[in-house]
Amino acid sequence: MDIKNISISRIHQGLVKREFSVLEVTKEFLKKIKKEDRDIGAFLEISEEGALAQAREIDQTISKEKDFPVLTGVPCAIKDIILVKGVRCTAGSKFLENYIAPYDATAIKKLKEQKAVILGKTNLDEFGMGSSTENSAFNPTRNPDNLERVS
């Protein structure tokens, strides 16, 4: 499965037509992240076990349904300034390096209602004060198409 330019609507159509499973899509995204992210530095945390568990659960749910929300089974990454209950949220700062979110942000509640698959948390400038990720307390994020540039 080539996921490089896959769209949300293509994932949805493929799941409706049973061309692939949520688990297969999720595994492909995780494989790509593992292969490429050590050079890019986009992810601060990858939630592999949680994402795979979500994918299996969603596959069971949609196996019985023909009609489900468009974001169901779509893998997504969450900026590390948005709270996901039980997951570390640093806001790109060493000061919050060990902070665990006590609740889900509204955006996350909505993604979970749609049954999107959360792959992990992505890097950002400290406290969201910037746009290039050059000022993250952890590492800069490189442009995936040109590692000499920022994202």
Structure overview:
34% of the residues lie in helices and 15% in strands. The protein has helices at residues 8-16, 22-40, 48-62, 106-114, and strands at 43-46, 75-79, 117-122, 142-143, 146-150. The chain has a three-stranded mixed sheet. It has a two-stranded antiparallel sheet with strand order 4-5. Strand 2 (75-79), helix 4 and strand 3 form a beta-alpha-beta unit. Helix 2 (22-40) packs antiparallel against helix 3.
How would a textbook summarize the main sheet?
A: 3 strands, mixed
Shape: globular
Helix content: 25-40%
Q: Quote the beta fraction.
A: 5-15%
N- to C-terminal separation?
25 Å
What is the N-to-C succession of helices and strands?
HHEHEHEEE
Low-confidence stretches: none
Structural class assignment: alpha+beta
DSSP E strands, number? 5
Average of the residue pLDDT scores:
95
Keywords:
151 residues, alpha+beta, three-stranded mixed sheet, two-stranded antiparallel sheet, 5 strands
Briefly say what this structure is:
By secondary structure, the protein is α+β, with helices and mostly antiparallel strands. Helix content is 34%, strand content 15%. The strands form two sheets. A three-stranded mixed sheet has the order 1-3-2.
Element layout with pairings:
Elements (H helix, E strand, L loop, with lengths): L7 H9 L5 H19 L2 E4 L1 H15 L12 E5 L26 H9 L2 E6 L19 E2 L2 E5 L1
Parallel strand pairs: 2-3
Antiparallel strand pairs: 1-3, 4-5
